[in-house]
Amino acid sequence: GRTHQKIGMGDHDGNRFTITVRGCSDSDGNPIDGKEAMRRVNEIRSRMSQRMSADAFPNWIGPQRFGATRPVTPEVGRAVVEDDYERACDLYLGMEGQNSSEDVAAFRAKWRETRDPQGCLEIIPRYLGYERGILESLLKNPEDWLRAYKSLPHSLQLLTIHSLQSLTFNHALAARLAADVSLIEPVIGDLVAPVQGNGRIDVSKMAYVSESNLERCKRNCQLGRLSVTGPLPGDSASFAKGLPGELEQQAIEDTGLSDVNWMVPRIPRLTSSGTRRPLSVLFQSFSVEEAPDISDSSLSERWEQGPLEGDLWHPDGASLKLKFTLPPGTYATVLMRELMRSPLDHY
């Protein structure tokens, strides 16, 4: 279709995914065939529906928001909201990651040991462009950490703040699950929001759940008209009350953000007012089928290396093709983790 209006991020109705999973194995790493793999997927899906509601799953924010193998993004954001740009740059340049290549690991180690921009520029891998920009800024303007941090793209600077907010949301979701409080059915003190046609919530029409409206809110949540929400904190964010509010405040304490006001005075555009996010979400149009095998030569180098220690896949295992649709802002990796039950770096 066509529109005379500019399309912005999140204006679409949803995301349709087709994902092929290869090397299916059991929990011991032994290969399983296609029928067994499909049976396990359908069994997990059934258990998810019994635990929550039909085709609903926890709306975790996926690992790519944090950096799956080097979760540096929220820690840089923490330094920014604490007005510590030296620490922000130091973390971005030097924080270790899992499974880093030798040249990247050597560069980050050199920075941690020397903090010498010139020396690090001599060995930095070509493809670490953002790190190179920080080093070049420090070489021209030594000790000007704010200028160095601002050499990062605006979108990445904002992502560091969003990532820190996301960390709090995930902690709040985890606290709720640990307390055995439903993600689907509201309790007194919850903040619920209307669900729009594309699956997003209308945060401008949120309401607190009280004794007087509890049953009505429960019914509308069951019908998919309302959603129980969790916090993405900011300088004017709304929080739940009662038990849900206590769990949210505990999440903020657990992430060490109790004293943070989310104001970024030296880069005002990074100041966030905060918002809310659904604690659960529905997936639709789900299907799973066996996928044909393909030659090893067309697969990745990771496949050619074979399973490493701690991996849960086997080259002789079956391949499955999964299809599903998710609302905007929902992570396919999160649903795949629910279905695959594999280590984080398998997604």
Strand order of the largest sheet: 4-3-5-6
Q: H/E order of the elements? A: EHEHHHHHHHEEHEHEEEHEH
Q: Tell me, briefly, the overall form.
A: flat
Low-confidence stretches: none
CATH topology of the largest domain: Pseudouridine synthase
CATH superfamily of the largest domain: TruD, catalytic domain
How would you characterize the overall build of this protein?
The protein folds into 3 domains: 15-55 and 283-346, no CATH class; 73-154, Hypothetical Protein Yqey, Chain: A, domain1 (Orthogonal Bundle); 155-267, TruD, catalytic domain (Pseudouridine synthase, 2-Layer Sandwich). It has helices at residues 34-51, 73-81, 85-94, 102-114, 117-123, 129-140, 145-149, 154-178, 214-222, 242-254, 301-305, 332-340, and strands at 15-21, 56-58, 191-194, 207-208, 226-232, 275-278, 280-282, 284-290, 320-326. The protein has 12 helices and 9 strands. 31% of the residues are buried. The strands form 3 sheets. It has a 4-stranded antiparallel beta sheet with strand order 4-3-5-6. The two termini are 33 Å apart. It has 347 residues and is an alpha+beta fold. The protein is flat, with a radius of gyration of 23 Å.
Looking at this protein, list some descriptive labels.
Hypothetical Protein Yqey, Chain: A, domain1, alpha+beta, four-stranded antiparallel beta sheet, Pseudouridine synthase, three-stranded antiparallel beta sheet
Concise structural overview:
This protein is of the alpha+beta class. The protein is built from twelve helices and nine strands.
